[in-house]
Amino acid sequence: MATPRFLLPPEGKIAPRLTALLVPGFLALLAAGGGAAWVTRQNQVHTRAVVHTYEVEKAVLEVRRVIEEAEATRRGALLAPATAAYRQGYHRAAAELPQRLVTLARLTADNPRQRDNLAGLQLQLGALAQRRAETMALIERGDQRAALAAFRADTEANSMRAVRFLMNRMAREERRLLAIRDQELRVTERAFYAVLVLAAVLLAALAVVALLTVLAYTRDLARSRDATQSLADSLEEMVAERTEDLTRANEEIQRFAYIVSHDLRSPLVNVMGFTAELEAATGQLGALVDSVEAEAPQLLSEEARLSAREDLPEAIGFIRASTQKMDRLINAILQLSRQGRRQLAPERIDVGQLIGQIRDTLAHRLADADATLEVTGMLPEVISDRFSLDQVFSNLIENAVKYLRPGVPGRITVSGRREPQRVIYAVVDNGRGIDPRDHARVFDLFRRSGAQDKPGEGIGLATVRALVFRLGGTISVDSNLGQGATFTLSLPLTLESQRPEGQGKNE
């Protein structure tokens, strides 16, 4: 009799399909990461340019302050020659002016217009400084009359107007540059947002595609195993052939899950790294906005303020939350994959003793939840894999403790019976129960039932079902909302010690 194959996934096709599906997405995600890095560098360049503009404006203001201070103190000395503070103030300003001019020259060395303006300014200041020095020399010799005569004959008013004109022109040049650089900064901000949105969309798309693919093949495998179980009693030859097919399909699924968990992590780490860099750049941008708002608020638009303080941190927070969730899902897939690749080691197990060990381990949680764990009757022994069976019962009991009804003392019981070639175990609780419409989906990977008010990724019952299948058994649930749940396990009395051909290679 030919073996029906419509329930089995195409052999050898899982990894190539996954590669063909995800490689373009990974490349696009890497490109988005590169774009994010480039935008970050451009943002830093434009930020430094804006900071440089403010430094030049500050230097121009300092030069202007020193010039005005020197003139004011000179006039004060003319009016009150006996006051030493005026003379000291003049000499201090005159000594400070060359240093300020050197700083201004250094900051404007890259701008030909400003160099020309500075050359004219220095020419005016040279003649002005000489006339001021002559006036102050007469005052210090006590010849106030000659000093006043020299001041009246001075053409300093024209020189000061020329100085102020040149300095105003330098300030206008910097404001012109600031407007250009502010526009460039806005352009990079818009590009930055575009890259963030693109990276988030790509990451979400990759996660959805990968998870849907895993779930689809997991469901195919589950249906194949159910079909094999229904034919086992009457068609031993078909069972043997179907078991071999299922083993190969299971190995392929495990390799596929490993590929997903391994290959998704690399671009995910890149996105996390770029997000950290963007977050650091956001801090610098926020500090710049604070500085601009404090020193020159008229230069800062409301749009730029909101972008730096609200929109940008919110977008980065969204990407960080998405990457963290993706990391947890990848770890869940990897855990399930490792369970499927582990070699089983059958041994005789006293299930009653095993439940007692689990009860001792969970004693603190049971006490906190006001719950009890009891064994009803004698639990039949079984020859199976101890680690897998411990995982199955631990997950079911922990699940029962987690979903107890508030205010109702919890009661969890484990019972069992022996049939000719199988053993049946039942884990019963009086918790909040499961809607009958969700009985099948609660065993699916990442699927949960009822109110999502408890922590978890939806992998516990999926792991239980995968382990039970590997032990050659089945699991089902009978429950209604508010009436507790009963999980029933059917296991072979003796698990064959078999290792599928090729298992363990390249792991």
TrEMBL record:
Catalysed conversion reaction: ATP + protein L-histidine = ADP + protein N-phospho-L-histidine
Limits of the Histidine kinase domain: 259-495
The keyword Transmembrane belongs to this UniProt entry's keyword annotation: yes
One Pfam family, short name: HisKA
UniProt key word Transferase: yes
Enzyme Commission (EC) number: 2.7.13.3
SMART domains: HATPase_c (SM00387), HisKA (SM00388)
Record keywords, A-Z: Kinase, Membrane, Phosphoprotein, Transferase, Transmembrane, Transmembrane helix
Enzyme class: transferase
Annotated signal peptide: none
Transmembrane segments: 20-39, 191-217
CDD domains listed in its UniProt record: HisKA, HK9-like_sensor
Stated name of the protein: histidine kinase
Provenance organism: Sphingomonas citri
Lineage: Bacteria, Pseudomonadati, Pseudomonadota, Alphaproteobacteria, Sphingomonadales
